Amino acid sequence: MSLPKFVVKTVVADRLPELLKCMPKAELHIHIEGSLEPELIFALAKRNGVALPFASVEELRRAYAFSNLQSFLDIYYAGASVLIKEQDFYDMTRAYLLRAAQDNVVHAELFFDPQTHTARGISMDTVINGIYRACVDAKVELGISASLILCFLRHLSEEDAFETLEQALPYRDKLIGVGLDSGELGNPPEKFARVFARCRALGFHLVAHAGEEGPPAYVWTALDLLKVERVDHGVQSSKDAALMRRLAGDRIALTVCPLSNLKLCVFPTLADHNLRTLLEAGLVATVNSDDPAYFGGYMNETFTQTFAAIGLTTQHAYTLAHNSFEASFIDASAKQRHVDRLNETFETFH
Ligand code: ADE
Ligand code: ZN
After folding, report:
1. Where in the chain are the domains?
2. Residues lining ligand 1, Cβ inside 6 A
3. Which member of 212, 229, 301, 344 is catalytic?
4. Model's pTM, two decimal places?
5. Which pLDDT tens digit goes with each residue over 206-227?
6. Is-contact 131 50, C-beta < 8 A?
């Protein structure tokens, strides 16, 4: 896809939040289990008779004070324990897609973590069918398209990842790609080189979390050994000038999640976030919510808080929305339709 040639008319600063909301956009980095709101966690716990180590929604919310990625993951995996039946996975996904559609997300690529569920005796069938059915219904009822990316948990073994892939193969046509998530430090991409090679041979799109907390070296190995097409987070790349040139030169997108980075203390404040640096170095950066129920914002909130904190402009808004379609795994004609709608939005917004 060609670089944006569209001429953007600057919008006055106080109208920018409205434009950020109404511009069509894709979300490319959302863990569907990270969209489980505390209210839904409690409702599902009651429905399934699961005991939670928190007395109330408020007490659970108060526990959302994280010092790093691992401190978040501990509570995130505990929250996912209420998902038992296919309908639970459906309800979670439905709630996210309804919320995303309100923010004019027109396409979403959803990560899910099957090992979190299969390790508790939930079948792959239950997980994938529940999430997938909600995506099919949302396309018809809300006009939002969504596809699924199966993530391997990197704190588990390569053998476990291979077994998970085998279990997922009967559902091959319901998945567009595979990814790599969970605790990054000490679990470098190379641990999964062989399973990614197999996924590549099977025709899956490939992505991986790299350079969230981990060093630029992990981004290099995600590119060179795993052969990923997009890097999730990747914000540590700005510490390595050669890596920045590689990412820009090959137009490898970064799915950046500013509110996540703030809540997990990757940057001390949102004003310190390096999104502007990434964009100004010519990288295909996108804005995403990661785990919106835990980090305090879906797409619109993420865009408005980030733009206010780092002083981004109308041109940045256009570039970020355009990048989200360019970096998506939708076909070329659908990409063009979304970009046409994006151009129309910017032309007619006054
Ligand atoms: N799983 C859910 N959110 C994650 C994140 N931000 N990093 C790694 N793994 C995750
Ligand atoms: Zn993530």
Report:
1. 13-348
2. 31, 34, 69, 76, 181-182, 209, 212, 260, 290-291
3. 212
4. 0.97
5. 999 999 999 999 999 999 999 9
6. no
